[in-house]
């Protein structure tokens, strides 16, 4: 059995990492013959950053890189489809697994749903691959978001839908997806976070930014009357806020972006604000003349105590960013994935959007949906600073085993298909057999 796993944008690699690992586990046991073909569409591509992500996450280099690059939604989607189709016909996988909601997700889904393999007795005799969507069912109900269009259409095409939270299952059922095709498995992004958290805490990013001092403190044995052991360096990290912004609705409209920036500058009066700047946002800062609000840190230049200034740094690798996020007093973001990661870490999150497709991060996590009103942003940040940390509440099945559940279910489904008669196997993947698995 051959599984083709698609990744296109940086968040996708965090989502596929645990699936790759689970497939490798199956391969090591030898109980199933399961081949993996990892495809990088190149939707987001920076050679330095890509190598960092592969290394940090332990992902093998993709077998195939479509090297699509940037472009408008139409151009990028069309180019991915054009380059992906011959790869699909050459490899003839039994299943195509797409994750998330980026252009690569919908583009590869469209090709996989429409493709028909030419008859070839020497290879698998299925007519088309099983189309699998990981992170299915999430809905913001905001059709101005390209991601919403991508995920809704992908779910409509998919044969097998893996869901991260209960709201996803409810959304799919309301849209008429048969229950037998829906599997709540947990969150592969959280799998990756839990696996790499301890390693991330070894990152030197805090020292490089001047945020970590070492104080010789170790009171072991003092209270019991024993001679204290040698002092142990315990890292002390001062409070800071971490910001990410990249959504077009926030950074492509000067008035909206200006309001958010003004709010962040006000927050920076109370706490240092660190801003790893997305390339899209850098362009908008320059275009709109907002440079005076920002201090760009060069090399190992430390974060200063200067109030009312946003400290900008270059985009970080996964482990460095995870370390910075784990130690933050709060995170302000418009990212969906960071809403999930802060929930898993127990870090307060203020989401600068009017909607979220991840409601479990609010009901069971640390996320607050604030919108983009500057006054509301400042009030939420100051409220968060006054609050004590609360007990960590983990959503169901966010336990680091989602990748294992996905691969286990997928193997059962593929086995059911491959064990069918030749006449059945020559048809498009039968949902009845998927359900029976």
Protein described:
By secondary structure, the chain is α/β, with parallel strands linked by helices. It folds into 2 domains: 2-186 and 401-436, Rossmann fold; 239-386, Glycogen Phosphorylase B (Rossmann fold, 3-Layer(aba) Sandwich). Helix content is 44%, strand content 15%. The chain is built from 18 helices and 16 strands. The protein has a 7-stranded parallel beta sheet with strand order 3-2-1-4-5-6-7, sandwiched between helices. Strand 1, helix 1 (10-29) and strand 2 form a beta-alpha-beta unit. Helix 1 packs across helix 7 (188-200), helix 1 crosses helix 16 (402-418) and helix 7 packs across helix 12. The longest helix is centred in the first third of the chain and has 20 residues, at 10-29. It is globular, with a radius of gyration of 23 Å. The two termini are 15 Å apart. Residues 214-234 and 421-437 have low confidence and may be disordered.
List descriptors.
437 residues, alpha/beta, Rossmann fold, 2 domains, 7-stranded parallel β-sheet, 18 helices, 16 strands, 44% helix, 15% strand, globular, disordered C terminus
Q: Can you tell me the number of structural domains?
A: 2
**Structural class assignment:** alpha/beta
Please report the distance between the alpha carbons of the first and last residues.
15 Å
What is the class of the largest domain in the CATH system? Alpha Beta
Task: Please estimate the helix content.
Answer: 40-55%
- What CATH calls the topology of the largest domain is Rossmann fold
Largest sheet: 7 strands, parallel
CATH architecture of the largest domain: 3-Layer(aba) Sandwich
Q: Strands of the largest sheet, in order across it?
A: 3-2-1-4-5-6-7
Uncertain parts: 214-234, 421-437
Number of helices: 18
Assign an overall shape.
globular
Mean pLDDT: 88
Oligomer: single chain
Number of beta strands: 16
C-alpha Rg (nearest Å): 23 Å
In CATH terms, the superfamily of the largest domain is Glycogen Phosphorylase B
Strand fraction: 15-25%
């Amino acid at each position: 059995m051959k599984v083709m796993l698609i990744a296109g944008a940086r968040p996708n690699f965090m989502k596929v990492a645990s699936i790759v690992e689970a497939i490798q586990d199956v391969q090591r046991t030898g109980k199933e013959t399961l081949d993996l073909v990892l495809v990088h569409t190149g939707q987001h591509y920076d050679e330095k950053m890509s190598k960092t992500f592969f290394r940090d996450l332990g992902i093998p280099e993709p077998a195939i890189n479509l090297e699509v690059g940037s472009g408008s939604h139409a151009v990028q989607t069309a180019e991915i489809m054009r380059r992906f189709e011959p790869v699909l016909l050459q490899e003839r996988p039994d299943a195509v697994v797409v994750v998330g909601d980026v252009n690569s997700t919908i583009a590869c889904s469209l090709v996989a749903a429409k493709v028909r393999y030419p008859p070839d007795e020497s290879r698998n005799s299925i007519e088309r691959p099983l189309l699998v969507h990981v992170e299915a069912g999430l809905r913001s109900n905001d059709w101005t978001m390209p991601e919403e269009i991508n995920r809704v259409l992908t779910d409509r095409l998919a044969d097998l839908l893996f869901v991260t939270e209960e709201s996803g299952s409810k959304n799919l059922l309301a849209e008429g997806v048969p229950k037998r095709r829906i599997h709540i498995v947990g969150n592969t992004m959280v799998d990756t976070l839990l696996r790499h958290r301890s390693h991330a805490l070894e990152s030197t990013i805090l020292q490089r930014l001047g945020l970590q001092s070492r104080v010789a403190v170790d009171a072991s044995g003092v209270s019991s009357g024993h001679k204290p052991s040698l002092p142990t360096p315990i890292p002390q990290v001062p409070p800071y806020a971490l910001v990410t912004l990249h959504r077009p609705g926030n950074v492509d409209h000067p008035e909206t972006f200006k309001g958010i920036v003004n709010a962040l500058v006000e927050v920076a009066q109370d706490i240092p604000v660190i801003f790893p700047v997305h390339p899209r946002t850098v362009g908008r800062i320059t275009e709109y003349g907002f440079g005076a609000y920002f201090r760009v840190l060069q090399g190992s230049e430390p974060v200063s105590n200067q109030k009312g200034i946003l400290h900008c740094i270059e985009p970080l690798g996964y482990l460095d960013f995870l370390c910075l996020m784990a130690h933050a007093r709060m995170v302000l973001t418009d990212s969906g994935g960071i809403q999930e990661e802060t929930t898993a870490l127990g870090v307060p999150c203020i989401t600068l959007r009017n909607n979220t497709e991840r409601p479990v991060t609010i009901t069971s996590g640390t996320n607050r949906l604030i919108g983009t009103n500057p006054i509301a942003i400042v009030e939420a940040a100051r409220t968060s600073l006054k609050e004590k940390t609360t007990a960590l509440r983990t959503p169901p099945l966010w336990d680091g085993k989602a990748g294992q559940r996905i691969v286990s279910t997928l193997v059962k489904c593929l086995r059911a298909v491959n064990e069918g008669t030749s006449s059945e196997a020559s048809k498009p993947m039968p949902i009845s057999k998927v359900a029976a698995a």
